[in-house]
Structure to design on (302 residues):
């Protein structure tokens, strides 16, 4: 789940942010007690679909973070070094205030699936400019595109300064994999007070995973994606339904984009999804855990 970087006013929204963080913190330390808001914000019951293999680099362990190798039997040229914070070092409510950063801890299913989706069609990215929004500590999809395709440039972004520092470390560690692709990271939040004029109409593709569910950021995300894309550009987005939140985003986006929403976008992931559903909602709740594909296309000269 990416941290969307939406600025949160210093009112009662800060208490809402604390509550979201408590939900995630509770899950990370193994407390799966029920809470009504878990139906939207999710607990970490379901980890991933197992689309990639990750192994800790034993001699790179530290007190607050570990380095992992990410590889894939399906995509043999994928070989990334990914730095992830340890859960026990990140359950700090105060670090959440000021922006939504619930995605900074771990790689969530939507990011995993979006990465897999991008690597299935590497030729599409040739000579294209790409930006990932709200990619948290890893921007896994964006950095995989940078390493495994011939994209002209990839910009990795998040609204959390610590995330951007982590992205800088990852870019440096993986730079030998970036052949002809220019790769950079930057702090990018969305909202009326967050200017990104230097990025307007620069990108052929926007990547974004699981950033639809905060009510206060949905309009701003639609506006930002529209401003970043060139005419004809596409936003590749994945997120679970999370109650009405995905549909609310799609409704807003339909005013500015051609929108295509797809549940069955990949036979392998669909089969895994069906297998997980059998386990029941206590372990796998498709409302929270199954990423839906949302494709936005910017048409004409708008």
């Amino acid at each position: 789940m990416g941290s969307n970087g939406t600025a949160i006013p210093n009112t009662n929204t800060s208490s809402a942010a604390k509550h979201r963080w408590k939900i995630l913190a509770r899950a990370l330390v193994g407390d799966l007690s029920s809470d009504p808001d878990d139906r939207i914000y999710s607990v970490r019951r379901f980890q991933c679909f197992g689309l990639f293999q990750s192994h800790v680099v034993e001699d790179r362990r530290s007190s607050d973070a570990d380095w992992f190798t990410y590889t894939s039997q399906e995509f043999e040229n994928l070989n990334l070094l990914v730095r992830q914070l340890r859960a026990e070092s990140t359950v700090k409510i105060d670090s959440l205030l000021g922006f939504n950063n619930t995605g900074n801890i771990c790689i969530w299913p939507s990011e995993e699936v979006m990465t897999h989706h991008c690597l299935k069609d590497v030729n599409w990215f040739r000579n294209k400019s790409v930006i990932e929004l709200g990619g948290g500590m890893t921007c896994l999809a964006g950095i995989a595109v940078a390493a495994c395709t011939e994209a002209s440039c990839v910009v990795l972004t998040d609204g959390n300064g610590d995330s951007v520092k982590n992205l800088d470390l990852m870019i440096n560690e993986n730079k030998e994999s970036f052949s002809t692709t220019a790769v950079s990271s930057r702090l990018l939040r969305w909202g009326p007070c967050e200017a990104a004029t230097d990025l307007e109409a620069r990108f052929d593709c926007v990547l974004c995973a699981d950033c639809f569910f905060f009510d206060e950021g949905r309009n701003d995300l639609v506006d930002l994606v529209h401003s970043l894309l060139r005419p004809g550009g596409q936003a590749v987005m994945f997120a679970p339904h999370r109650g009405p939140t995905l549909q609310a985003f799609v409704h807003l986006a339909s005013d500015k984009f051609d929108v295509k929403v797809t549940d069955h976008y990949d036979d392998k992931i669909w089969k895994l999804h069906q297998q997980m559903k059998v386990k029941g909602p206590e372990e796998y709740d498709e409302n929270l855990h199954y990423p839906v594909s949302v494709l936005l296309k910017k048409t004409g000269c708008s």
Notes: The first helix runs from residue 13 to 28.
